[in-house]
Amino acid sequence: MSDRHDTERPPQAQEHQPGDEHKMMPEPDYMPRYPGSGRLKDKVALITGGDSGIGRATSILFAREGAKIAFVYRDKDEDAEKTRRLIEEEGGKAIAFRGDIGDKSFCDEVVAKTVSEFDRLDVLVNDAGEQHMAEELEEISEAQLTRTFRTNIFGIFFITQAALPHLKKGDAIVNLTSITAYRGQPVLMDYASTKGAILALTRSLSKNLADKGIRVNGVAPGPIWTPLIPASFPPDKVANFGANQPMGRAGQPNEVAPAVLFLACADSSYMTGQVLHPNGGAVVGG
């Protein structure tokens, strides 16, 4: 893998969440590194936040592994169209849904239309999220707190509630939590709190669904080069993002997507309630 992303990342910022991938310099690595092996052949996967970042990389990888893809995105139409095209270039079928996963009726509609289009649902990946930097707790407004929790945790409840009637024995749910759930983050206190809630939900739901044969696991990335980064931090922080990790760099979305794939497919058939940690060498939860 080239290290151009670590040596040529200029200071940059974006004004709106969740950020535009096509405006990032350089663009993240999202393409899978290896040929597919049919690990999701004939499966249908629903992926939130699928237009960019980890969600895009996961969507493309799943398509390469044989899945049909439904993905949800907030409002970045250009990024979503590119993701759809990349899925189709892998030979996959794709449908995209534009909207807010914090809206329960939207989540119900997404699941209903996915099942109507593809006749089934086998894998749910809860990836969508947002974060907003605040130096002090008092800076976090009620509106920001509500918005962050509604997107990051309410949205997971809503879409998972809609999906569960269609999931069956052998199917999988993969939730994206974060290293911040384990270590905290002093300028992302509300975001880190939602990621802790996702971790607790993953463990709790895995026990609730174990007797039904539906596995629930999580992935807790460290610093990953996605549109959330220039949309969240000042330009100087973006330029050095990830440099404090043991491996000395930020990760790429296509370094996280294989962990999601592992938990989504039968390779992880004896795992539920667990979390994988692609984070550049940080030891957490030990």
From TrEMBL:
Transmembrane segments: none annotated. Residues 1-37 are annotated as: Disordered. SUPFAM superfamilies: NAD(P)-binding Rossmann-fold domains. Keywords: Oxidoreductase. CDD domains: SDR_c1. GO terms for molecular function: oxidoreductase activity, acting on CH-OH group of donors. Coiled coil: none annotated. Residues 17-26 have a biased composition (Basic and acidic residues). It holds the Pfam family adh_short_C2. It comes from the Bacteria. Belongs to the short-chain dehydrogenases/reductases (SDR) family. This is NAD(P)-dependent dehydrogenase, short-chain alcohol dehydrogenase family.
